[in-house]
Specification:
By secondary structure, the protein is α/β, with parallel strands linked by helices. The chain is built from 12 helices and 8 strands. It has 2 domains: about 180 residues, NAD(P)-binding Rossmann-like Domain (Rossmann fold), CATH 3.40.50; about 90 residues, N-(1-d-carboxylethyl)-l-norvaline Dehydrogenase, domain 2, CATH 1.10.1040.10. It is globular. The structure holds acetoacetyl-coenzyme A.
Amino acid sequence: MSVQIKSVAVIGGGTMGNGIAHVFAMNRIPVNLIETKQEFADRAMATIEKNLDRMVAKEKIDVETKDAALNSISVFLDLRKGVKGVDLVIEAVPENLDIKKSVWTAVDEAADAHTIFASNTSSISITKLAALTKRPDKFIGMHFFNPVPVMKLVEIVNGLDTSEETYKVVEETSRLLGKTPVPVNDMPGFVSNRVLMPMINEAVFAVYEGVATPENVDQVMMLGMAHPMGPLRLADFIGLDVCLDILNVLYDGFKDPKYRPCPLLIKMVDAGKLGNKTGEGFYSYS
Ligand code: CAA
């Protein structure tokens, strides 16, 4: 590998960010975990520890690996200090263009000139994010899947100006993490969500039109198509607001009515029923 990633900064310690920090640390690559508040950082570290413990209990890793992983994560509440000196910055902040804009503008000013930038966005254009920085050739999408320690895929999204060199470094880094990188080009929804979200949306339409209950829609897909979770349980797991945002990106991006979000999905998001994270979606989690 031409450039080896020896240290990484992960911005955001939510579900995706703490999972990404977990897999780098477990593979002995030091991580600067950047959060906005100490309580969010504490929550992220507690989740990482719980998930590492789960892997120790399943004998996937030993206690030494767990301890080394936890020790190799340093928490930063100052973004500029956290990105200084690392080889790769991965941003996993909420899917909101304004938040991402302010993060990437600050990172671009503070990071070293050689540092590669990756966004874990599931829907926002990599080309658009890259254009916020002065290094679009070093900007790429590194799209991980939840739960990050378990799911094998990293969808690597090449923006319009991403260089071959940047792609190669990120591809090899993904392999070092034990993941399988799959290259795709920057188009709305990339490949993963262009295929997944219409399926989830269609499952919501089936409920909306009274074809079947959520449980029965999920049973059909689990027992008939060997999906590990039905599409509606998966929608709850991803977050119904996230699903709606991604469908809107597809709808706006292609101007094709086949991506129109189901009115039931919109209504559930309006009601604050967002799935696992709010305790209610197509299922109840109380
Ligand atoms: N950290 C570490 N290990 C974990 C984990 C975590 N956070 N979560 C689960 N695991 C491990 C468990 O310990 C278990 O290990 P063993 O195989 O050794 O027993 C294994 O994963 C399976 O977990 P469980 O037995 O608890 O439960 P399960 O068999 O029902 O599997 C699941 C849970 C892995 C989530 C499975 O249901 C699944 O694969 N679901 C589909 C997930 C999916 O599609 N994710 C992608 C969502 S889309 C996305 O993320 C991106 C986007 O852009 C929207």
